[in-house]
Write a structure and sequence with these properties.
about 140 residues; five-stranded mixed beta sheet; 6 helices; 5 strands; globular
Length: about 140
C-alpha cells in the first residue's frame, strides 16, 4: 500500500484527486498508476483502470488471475466493473468511500476476488481530506 500512496502523492502534485494504485503478482509490482482524469480530460482515467490496463499489457492477456491490487480509496462502481471483468484475485484498499464506493453504489467484484480494507487508512484519508478541504477553499 505504501507504493500506492506514493502514486497518490504524484497525482496530488498534478492537481489530481490523490488516488494511487499498484498491481502485484508473485511479490513483483507489474503496474502502477495514479488518477489522471484532469490531465487527460477523461472521466475513465482512474488509477485502477490505468493500472489494470498496464498490468494486462505486462502479462500479455486480459485476465489478472493471481494478481493483487492495492489502491488508496475504495474503487468506484466503474472501477469495480473493470476489476470484475479482469478477474483480479485480491483487492486491498485503504479508505472506504461511503459516497461513491462500489459497495454504496451497488457494484460488485468477481465472486473469487478477496477484499481487505483499512491498510494505511489514516495516511490515505489524511491526504484525501486535505485535498478536498483545499479544493473547497479555492472555490
Amino acid at each position: 500500500m505504501a507504493k500506492a500512496i506514493e502514486e497518490a502523492k504524484i497525482a496530488l502534485t498534478k492537481g489530481e484527486v490523490p488516488i494511487g494504485a499498484v498491481i502485484v503478482i508473485d511479490n513483483q509490482i507489474i503496474a502502477r498508476a495514479h488518477n489522471l482524469t484532469e490531465t487527460l480530460n477523461d472521466v475513465t482515467a482512474h488509477a485502477e483502470i490505468l493500472a489494470i490496463t498496464a498490468a494486462e499489457n505486462f502479462l500479455g492477456g486480459k485476465y489478472l488471475d493471481g494478481c493483487t491490487m492495492y489502491v488508496t480509496l475504495e474503487p468506484c462502481q466503474m472501477c469495480a466493473g473493470a476489476l470484475y471483468w479482469s478477474r483480479i484475485s485480491n483487492l486491498f484498499y485503504a479508505v472506504k468511500d461511503s459516497n461513491r464506493g462500489y459497495k454504496t453504489m451497488g457494484g460488485r467484484l468477481h465472486p473469487k476476488t478477496k477484499v481487505n480494507s483499512g491498510i494505511l487508512e489514516n495516511e490515505s484519508k489524511e491526504m484525501l481530506d486535505k485535498f478536498f478541504i483545499t479544493r473547497r477553499n479555492m472555490n
